């Protein structure tokens, strides 16, 4: 096994916010590597650095080339279908989709938060997994000009200020928390499903943030013990249930179900658009989002929306559009690991990043990747 510099995944549109404690200043190292790979220099000093989708693509290509120059190898179209574990010895290798076997006694498992078949395979093999909290809700869209005016007042559209963002949170009477998630100024709502017959939404912005709408997740925090207590993979079943209902509510053709805020608060289905045009492709079918969201989420969002409207003018305007469903705020599982970064019960298997339950975006995943790489090197030195 060879080591070089690490790469990074692309979560959403390249937001580099990070809430992890970073005593070793690894985040700075990550940002510097991103700049070397083609990210804009301003990520080194901006309070809320952002790269944009198009630049992420070229950055990943640059990182891939650097890894290959250092001796790394990429195997495209080569899915890992199974792992092999010897009793008493630990990890032995990987069974690949083409029928071949890749012998490996150290494996970093850095899958995304929607790698459901991999999660299910690991559970079958007895790798320790636990259910983890995530959130469920919608993407909410406003004209970007409304957000600029609410945040900047008479200085809205000043070139120095750029497009405005927001962050909102409210703890509800039903003991649920509603909050904005992955706010995308001047962006669009995008399709993010990974399975047939399901609809999932996400949001993104280009570096220019020049699209006509702002969008954000409007999501409700959920808890395994309360909402899906039936085993470590129950959160996946929970996600699939509401994603399938969203597919049906949208017309069973991958259009997404949508509803105007005024109709949502009044408890009636939407039949037409108003002042706000949704950006989701292939399209939005106006309907009643209570068909594809849990009752507790509907109740909490109805309480929170007017409160957010008092904090941010026109946030709860009747014509604002909500598009469902947002279910992939984070991984629904955690592949439990010890202080040595190895799986709690499968030696030399190193869960890493967002899919494994140890990060919430690009920067935190990259920091976790550095820590895991060092742990792998230390383990190999002990052999």
How would you sum up this structure, described in words?
This protein is α+β, with helices and mostly antiparallel strands and 383 residues long. 28% of the residues lie in helices and 22% in strands. It is built from 9 helices and 15 strands. Strands 6, 7, 8, 9, 10, 11, 12 and 13 form an 8-stranded mixed β-sheet that branches. A 3-stranded antiparallel β-sheet has the order 1-2-3, covered by helices on one side. A two-stranded parallel ribbon has the order 4-15. Strand 11 (256-260), helix 7 (261-266) and strand 12 (284-286) form a beta-alpha-beta unit. The longest helix is centred in the C-terminal third of the chain and has 20 residues, at 362-381.
Describe this protein with a few key phrases:
alpha+beta, FAD/NAD(P)-binding domain, 2 domains, eight-stranded mixed β-sheet, three-stranded antiparallel β-sheet, globular, disordered N terminus
């Amino acid at each position: 096994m060879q080591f070089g510099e690490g790469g990074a995944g692309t979560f959403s549109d390249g937001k580099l916010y990070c809430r992890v404690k970073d005593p070793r200043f690894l985040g700075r190292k990550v940002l510097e590597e991103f700049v070397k790979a083609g990210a804009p220099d301003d990520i080194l000093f901006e309070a809320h650095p952002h790269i944009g989708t198009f630049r992420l693509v070229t950055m990943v290509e640059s990182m891939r080339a650097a890894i290959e120059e250092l001796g790394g190898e990429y195997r495209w179209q080569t899915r890992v279908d199974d792992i092999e574990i010897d009793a008493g010895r630990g990890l032995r290798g990987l069974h690949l989709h083409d029928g071949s076997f890749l012998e490996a006694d150290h494996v970093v498992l850095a899958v995304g938060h929607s790698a459901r078949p991999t999660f299910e395979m690991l559970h079958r093999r007895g790798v320790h997994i636990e259910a983890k909290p995530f959130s469920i809700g919608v993407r909410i869209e406003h004209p970007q000009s409304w957000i600029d005016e609410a945040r900047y007042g008479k200085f809205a559209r000043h070139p120095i200020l750029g497009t405005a963002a927001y962050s909102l949170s409210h703890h509800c009477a039903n003991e649920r928390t509603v909050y904005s998630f992955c706010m995308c100024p001047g962006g669009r709502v995008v399709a993010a499903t990974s399975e047939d017959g399901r609809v999932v939404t996400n949001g993104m912005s280009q570096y220019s943030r020049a699209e006509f709408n702002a969008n954000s997740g409007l999501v409700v925090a959920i808890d395994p013990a309360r909402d899906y207590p039936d085993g470590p993979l129950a959160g996946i079943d929970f996600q699939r249930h509401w994603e399938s209902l969203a597919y049906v509510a949208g017309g069973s053709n991958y259009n997404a179900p949508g509803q105007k805020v005024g109709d949502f608060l009044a408890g009636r289905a939407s039949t037409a658009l108003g002042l706000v045009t949704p950006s989701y492709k292939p399209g939005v079918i106006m309907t009643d989002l209570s068909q594809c969201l849990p009752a507790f989420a509907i109740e909490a969002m109805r309480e929170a929306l007017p409160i957010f409207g008092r904090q941010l003018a026109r946030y709860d305007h009747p014509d604002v559009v909500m598009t469902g469903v947002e279910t992939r705020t984070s991984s629904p599982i955690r592949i439990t690991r010890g202080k040595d970064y190895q799986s709690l019960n499968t030696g030399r298997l190193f869960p890493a990043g967002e899919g494994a339950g140890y990060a919430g975006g690009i920067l935190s995943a990259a920091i976790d990747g550095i820590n895991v790489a060092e742990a792998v090197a230390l383990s190999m030195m002990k052999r």
